[in-house]
Amino acid sequence: MTTEPMQDAAPAAEEPNTSDDRIQALEGELEQLRAQSLIDRADMENQRKRLERDVRNACRFANKQLLGDLLPVFDSLEAALNTAPAEDPLRDGVVLTLRELTRVCGNNGLVEIAPAPGDAFNPEQHNAMSAVETRDVAPGSVFQLFQKGYLLNEQLLRPALVSVAKHD
Question: How many angstroms separate the CA atoms of 132 and 117, rounded?
Answer without folding.
Answer: 12
